[in-house]
Amino acid sequence: MATIEQLSQRTPKVSVDELLTGFYPSPRFGDVSFDSYRPDPAQPSQAAAVKALSEFADMVNQPEPTGLRKLFGAKKPAARAGIYLDGGFGVGKTHLLASLWHATAGKKAFGTFVEYTNLVGALSFRRAVDALSGYALVCIDEFELDDPGDTVLMSRLMRELADAGVKLAATSNTLPGSLGDGRFAAVDFQREIQVLADQFDVLRIDGEDYRHRGLPEAPVPFSESGLHDRVRELKAGPDGILAEDTFSDLVKHLSGVHPSRYRQLIDGVDFIAWHQVATISEQAVALRFVVLADRIYDKDIPVLASGVAFDQLFTEEMMTGGYMKKYHRAVSRLTALARQGSEV
Length: 344
Description:
Blueprint: E1 2-5, H1 16-21, H2 44-61, H3 67-72, E2 82-87, H4 93-103, E3 108-112, H5 113-123, H6 125-132, E4 137-141, H7 148-163, E5 167-172, H8 190-198, E6 200-205, H9 224-235, E7 240-246, H10 247-254, H11 262-265, E8 271-277, H12 283-298, E9 303-307, H13 316-319, H14 324-341
């Protein structure tokens, strides 16, 4: 019999050590590899990205020459510290980034952009640099700059890690030189943005969103009575944890939980049920919810919901504004999870 819990009643506590040791791919990408990535034959850039990342992994794994080998050995061609995967939603960028992480040896970190900024907030900038400078590879998924402070912070962090010999890999839906466009006065921070761009070789990956390629439209939300019936069936089914919340209660609760703890907020949850999903109209609330959606997607948790469909979760203004790529990603991921929820 499933246990019913409420995310809105959970208040996870996370130590600094837990934050630092939690930088690895989520279970969804726990055993992916370059071989398990399936390039679309119609998109040559996908196969080219696999080849380039495989070669980058070899470079990370190849120890730097020391002593006489360094003095008299063949000079290695100059290379930038990082590789940057630019492409639309669902082309497999995170799959490839996680494959790179799995293919490299030594100390390495894998996390989202938000998780790194949260880490700096928890440790302090200098302690974060000191901790990550000993890594062979740092992978940053969903690289986005949402405000000037993050621009300066990540510019300094990437520069100092690159100077320490750390290899960098990142994914985003925006070219490095265009980060920040539409969000704030990016021109005032062009130097920091250029510093970021100079750290990376860019790989463009074209293609359609695999989550929806050849699949039916997003399922219609449950009626309120239909969702109650489905929850009763799940409760009477196999053991597990069903997190059931009224959407407004959950949204309100998120304002009191730091986003760095959202991974722990859903720890152990097998299914999620949201009653009376409504369009979010406040930007700060919407951005917090995007982080939660990413963490739920990482853990591949089916979502059952009543209320508005997920393509109406954010206002039209949000879906066309400066943060539109975050919101489109969240809609894409929640739609995939709702499709799973309609089949459980």
